[in-house]
Structure prediction request, 147 residues.
Amino acid sequence: MPDYIAELRAQIGHRPVNLMGACGLIRDERGHLLLQRLAGQEVWALPGGLCELGEPPLETLRREVWEETALTVQAASLLDLLTTPLRTVANGDQAHFYTAMYRVDAWTGVPVPDGVEGAELAFFAPTALPTLRGQPGEFARAWLAGL
Prediction:
């Protein structure tokens, strides 16, 4: 979680906020999707995360992909902006989440998990996706099915 959110929460407690983030659909030359298995869980997710204060979503995508996979995003196209109704997370914080979904059009590097958020990285065929986390995961599954 970005530092500014912790500072904000110290001021407002659990009251609702808007949180913006970005996720990337990164495919290899076979069209397989890169996913990360979340540390300590048996669920997989797209690389991505929350924006820092004032950070544009495309820059968030680039930063989060680098931090979580060691890949450099060279080009990406915005596909959609996902929104959630008000959610209450495990610690009681409330938020509306807005997630910019990007198709990563060009990237370089060799995927390496960060060992903090992600325990493992793997490419999956669109017809063999594992259990995916949340609304971005549902979007990815539907998007791949429509290709």
Notes: The mean pLDDT is 96. The longest strand covers residues 94-108. The longest helix spans residues 57-69. Strands lie at 17-26, 33-38, 44-45, 48-50, 72-83, 87-88, 94-108, 118-124.
